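Marked as duplicate of an earlier ticket. Keeping the data here for the record.
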Amino acid sequence: MVLNYIWITFFLAAFLVASIQLVFYGNTEVFPAIINSTFESSKTAFDISLGLTGVLSLWMGIMQIGEKGGVVSFFSKILSPIFTRLFPDIPKGHPVTGSIFMNLTANMLGLDNAATPLGLKAMEGLQELNPDKKSASNPMIMFLVLNTSGLTIVPISIMVYRAQMGATQPTDVFVPILLATFFSTLAGIIMVSLYQRINLLNHTILLFLGGISLFIAGIIYFFSTLSRAQIDVYSTNAANILLFCLIIGFILSGIKRRINVYDTFIEGAKEGFQTAVRIIPYLVAILVAIGVFRASGCMDFIIQGIAQSIQWAGLDSDFVGALPTALMKPLSGSGARGLMVDAMNTYGADSFVGRMACIFQGSTDTTFYILAVYFGSVGIVKTRHAVPCGLIADLAGVISAIFIGYLFFN
């Protein structure tokens, strides 16, 4: 229902702003640009789905081996104490907790290609437990917000872009991104817990959150002792070695259980292909709405309004040049990436705006894209409190990114 209102709002806002531009400013290019964006966005949605087909087939097949080989159940048992509190509606030791864990791990390591299929597999498991197949369950919403908050330990792609844009120290945004995305994730967990009346003040959750905080502090300290070249080598290799070890571990578990690993892989890969086809309409719907919103000038209008409000309030508005990246990130990952690169190109990779754009890019994830893909893959129509919780997590990420950016670079 929330997505329905947002979808309609995007189109009506685009029509209103475009009409004003045509009538009062004589901009005859705005409506052709809007229509062109619908074709381009539709094609982009299909290309994304097509591109996901192979990756989904691969990882759904690997996950099928992991399930029958007992690896997923192993992770479920280990995570049961914390997951039974964050996901109280999931039965203790259920295999879906293993899928959730592997998806979140892939996200934290910046392995987007692996995270999406693992997340879709987790959503399928959550849908099996869902009593109302059209409405998002509480565990689905908690899982989705953990994804949209975008907790990332190794933002390797952003550091690569900074290197390509000529940054003197491409890794200087590493710690700020890690801090911003941590606060975003923490805000997401708190908001969902308030909605679902989950008690966060028990020793298990406090120990878990404290342990995560210490782990992140350790990661920050370790990487702070390395040079830029060492950080690139460590982060890239650690992520890929872990990923390949995961694949090998799944295969070995299948051999140990004496299952036909190849046939099991094919069985899971077929599900990946079907999932990729199933999400096409949902991606077309959300990406076309976003494209129309951008092409009409609505995004520029919002940014200008924010800039003027900040200036009227007498606050420092240096970060506003990077704000398009922050506003675009919940709507489109590729769009936000393009705006980040544009900010570095316009202001300089080592400028305050250039660095802020990178922190915004890494502080959260593509909320509406994830909503469309994850919920669309299992036919969820009623998103309940998923959107407000996801957007509040995004807002927390943006606000913390601004404070952290000023702390580190201004």
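See parent ticket for discussion. The mean pLDDT is 83.
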